[in-house]
Amino acid sequence: MTPSPQNINDPAVLWSIARRLHPIYAELAREFVIEAPAEFDLQALESKKEDEPGAEAVEQATAWLNAMDERIQVHQLRQFLQTCSMVDRTGLEALLQHFLAKSERSETVRDKIDFLLVQYFSQAAPTDLEDDKADIAYVAQGLEPVLGEVELKTPVWLNALDRVLEAARHCRSLDQLLHGGVLEQGRKAKAQAGDLFYLPVALVAFTRFGYLMRRVFFRLMLADLNVILEGLTELEEKGVETIDCQRAQFSAQEPIIRLRMICQSWKVMFQAEYSSGQPLRMLVDLRASVDCALGRNASAAGKTASAAEPMAAKAAPSKPAPVKAAPAKAVSAPPRAAAAAAGAGGAKSVMAAKPGPAAEVKKAKFAVAGDEAPEFEVEAAPPEWNAEAEPQFGKKK
């Protein structure tokens, strides 16, 4: 089992973790309307104050947490932790101790641990940390409070992660990253690791990988937004007032002024510390619509994408088929534009859209929740690179 700085089997430690996690799980259950186990009093952990609880209390608390774990999906945990300010560093430590102590090593448990480690490291790392400074030793140092001291003898099979990162850095658009096979290679590397994923050095390597992939996501998202805004300006200078954006689930004659407003709201949204609910595929399709209106051919982008694919293929023995985007379904302009523009008020307004035909299309098309959620989500804006700064944990700009 992965080592932990604390004796996770100590009843006092278990009780401390349970008390720390109870309000987090209770709030998560309220937000996602998850029915908590009826046989346990939800207030028991909060009201219990003694440092050395009885064995029965610890057993009840542990059983309640485990039952909640079965109900909470990976994408729900991601969305909650990236939109809720109640979970601080100590809360993440408690979550990691809880999941790392589990004897069951299911795919769901693995994915939760993977996300939590990246989230934990991201909160500790300074915003001006350069990519080349985030080496395996630096990441291990950041994870020491939850993993303990890690022997940094990296197995050869983990080198595949660096090849996937190299391929991701060669992508020149979000479309290339999402549909060029790069993300599939990262998922494949994690799946093929099996129980080796839980080796301390592997946990550090996958955390570094996820952290750097988040940065790639941000750079490409902001680059796409800038390309779209520049394209809209060019169209306006040519006297164009509306363009066909049906592929992006807007109207066939979408006003450019409305698209500019939406893109500006997205730019604000992408700078916040969350990513769940971001319209990733919608952004890709909107760029394609603008390029089409300008008479640009998608082949130029495709040539750049093809350069990244061979490097991604080296990361694993076989290369999965590129991910196909779901066919767009046209919806009426006002509901779609209203939902997209809601991003100006924060991501929660987008994610909290009432169920309905338009909301269902949005969920199927570009929401990041669910089984098709991107593996590597982003939680903070890309830093201003400072070559002079020497990164130190706990010091942020």
Radius of gyration: 22 Å
* Approximate shape: globular
- Give the termini distance in whole angstroms: 36 Å
Helix content: 55-70%
Largest sheet: 2 strands, antiparallel
Structural class: mainly alpha
Note poorly predicted spans: 1-5, 272-278, 299-397
**How many β-strand stretches?**
2
Number of helices: 17
Q: How much strand content do the residues show?
A: under 5%
Lateral arrangement of strands in the main beta sheet: 1-2
Helix and strand sequence: HHHHHHHHHHHEEHHHHHH
What is the averaged pLDDT score? Answer: 74
Structural notes for this entry:
By secondary structure, the chain is mostly helical. The radius of gyration is 22 Å and the shape is globular. It has helices at residues 11-31, 44-47, 55-71, 74-81, 89-100, 107-124, 136-147, 159-169, 174-179, 182-193, 200-237, 256-269, 280-293, 299-313, 333-341, 347-351, 357-365; strands at 242-243, 254-255. Helix 4 runs parallel beside helix 6. A two-stranded antiparallel ribbon has the order 1-2. Among the domains are: 1-123, no CATH class; 215-296 and 325-365, no CATH class.
